[in-house]
């Protein structure tokens, strides 16, 4: 490899080739939508009837999530415009969440990531075992 090839400068803008000036924004939003709970929530909501679900149903469906983490994640997704929260004035109060159009636009890439994990989990486990055995 030549010295010129070795000196290739890396920059934050390389991550987002069509929007290099938004590299920090890309990182910030990827942190939000890429965490394990957000992925689960978006995929679960996409498979719910009418893409809507009650808080208690989400809590039962997502393994290992605490009520506090579910609340925080839903609030963050709502703030980013990916989830809509609807409060029904009933006794007891009922709250439902649904994906917005913006949230739905994440389904293809997010389901692709989930499917990739399903297809490659055994490979990852083997690589971990090989690495840990060094």
Mean pLDDT, to the nearest integer, reads 87
**Tally of domains:** 1
Strand order of the largest sheet: 1-3-2
* Coarse morphology: globular
What structural category do the secondary elements indicate? mainly alpha
DSSP E strands, number: 3
| CATH architecture identity | Orthogonal Bundle
Description of the molecule:
- The protein is mainly alpha-helical and 134 residues long.
- It has a single domain, classed as Winged helix-like DNA-binding domain superfamily/Winged helix DNA-binding domain (Arc Repressor Mutant, subunit A), CATH 1.10.10.
- 57% of the residues lie in helices and 11% in strands.
- The chain has helices at residues 3-6, 23-33, 36-47, 55-61, 67-79, 101-104, 107-132; strands at 52-54, 83-88, 94-99.
- The chain has a three-stranded antiparallel beta sheet.
- A hairpin with a 5-residue loop joins strand 2 and strand 3 (94-99).
- Helix 3 (36-47) crosses helix 7 (107-132).
- It is globular and about 65 Å long.
- The protein starts with a helix and ends with a helix.
- The relative contact order is 0.11.
- The model has no long low-confidence stretch (mean pLDDT 87).
